[in-house]
């Protein structure tokens, strides 16, 4: 499987989707992987037991709670693998094992008791507990449970109910026929031991637990079992008793129980027994570490952490234990590395590991890195008060206030939705970034039925909405048409937009224009072109129609940027020369044409021609009485900022500086009165100073360029692109560490430039001698863009932990894949 293809278009919450898939693969498609953690292999054994028609034979002792699959879905964001029963997975994605079990589930009503019990055990091991209740839909009586096979089905039902509901009345009722008057079967022995453990861990009163453990022991003594099976079940009983001893704070007794469990280990005689033995040893090592910590025995703690990691290098719990151990000893940097590695191997405990990493990063002075980690912790557990407060505490006041705002619907917890809600469903964008609410402005003018004479200049790239949805993981918003958005995700404004689209074919040109502007601002440029099929411009047109068709041309042009053939806005050029074209529209198009030719055709002659037309139009607009001082100042400032492409093409530095001075002078002095005018003034000044910074750097005036970039950031500290520009300035000054932090801000405030920001931050931290931060940044770049070969090379270069070999393999395979594609 090509890892980058599996993850393409799917952005994991904290780790690359392919990595989460491989570590937890049996839960997702029923197959194994070299990276699969031990507990995930329980379903592989359960499937073999089903094939062997042997439901009473031992299977793995550890099953995951029902919440585990939800976390796996939410963090991997591998939407095609989201299922509630095995038949929900597309057969093209399923392994042969999954297909066999899916077929059995589909035919469950006709299964005999053996296959029913075996299927139920596989479903439980695959963390599909609700599906177990479809296979074993009702409790059996004590008499029915006397049958060893049917008892297995009842115990699996009881286990599934606990996974879904905890110690509910239904769970208690399901355990009752197995533990009140237990028969002499393997299922009854295991159920009694399990019930004692559950009571110990989850009930207010655990005084009955020893009696249940004693019953389990008596049953085991009377069973005729192979030596391996008997020793395994006895060790599991002892392991459950450890929990009770721990709760009684009898830690020395707990340690003796663990010694006894370890001494019971039998030599496995086949592959299935080997898998069971490894799982048992891993569980014993886990509890050894926990009890060693409670006893203050650091030497034993080290021994058993090493044992656990040797048995399962991809286990989250073992990685967490190792990181906690070194942090307690004051080795904060090693602890940070451990917590980051733990978080990559999630999902269980990802946010917890990231919060611990935040603590370590802050202690080491990696403040910006700590903010990024806090944002990722909040992203993986957005409903958690702890992650919310951690992020708020590390954020500036504006973002902290955003994080703490109450929400009404689940998706509103999402970091990206909070930032850019307007782009998702015309909700509220809480980010202070200037462009965060562009769709809101467009909608409000459309709702009022009157477009502004002066609009903002920022044209978001067509991929912005797609990237936003992909990086947020809110795939329900990935629709091609607003009407496709589910009702549960809509706002009243969205419903109004859908009504305008329904009325579009019969609406007048003004309403069509207003609707088309909103659609483009939301990222539905292709829909605008579908709603407005091309037509000849030389036909008689009204002013409203001319504006509409110019807008269509802008949408067409912007949508083609970055493609092999950029669409020439010929319709707009024709409109500017149309007899009915008003002066202001001619001015707008002429300025647009100067920029187009300067960027795309590099034709000085064409740029000069359109500059002359723009100048003529501007002169008429400035001498007339139709526009306010604000509008005139905005028009003139934008004019000079745009038409200076002409002296730039001529290499006329004096004229370029003179005219840019005028653009800046006007931008700083523009007299705004309303909130909208203030927004336009800030946006214009920001754009003007951004252009001036490029001018300064182009002329080698580094210090001046730096001051201008800093001023641009002061106007809008939440614009990711400007943080990237500041990073480039810092990099040119040899300040790699600070440049890396600025690139991190780009990534945190994305989605524009998220993957690139992480990759460049990784390069900077690597040069600055902070490989730990560099590795994390490279992994995050690959999380967002699995095809980023430079990030893959960077990861392979700096990786030193458990995944170092995987990093090298990923880079080699990705380069080979790319070379093969180029050759084809």
UniProtKB/TrEMBL annotation:
This is Tetratricopeptide repeat protein. It comes from Actinokineospora diospyrosa.
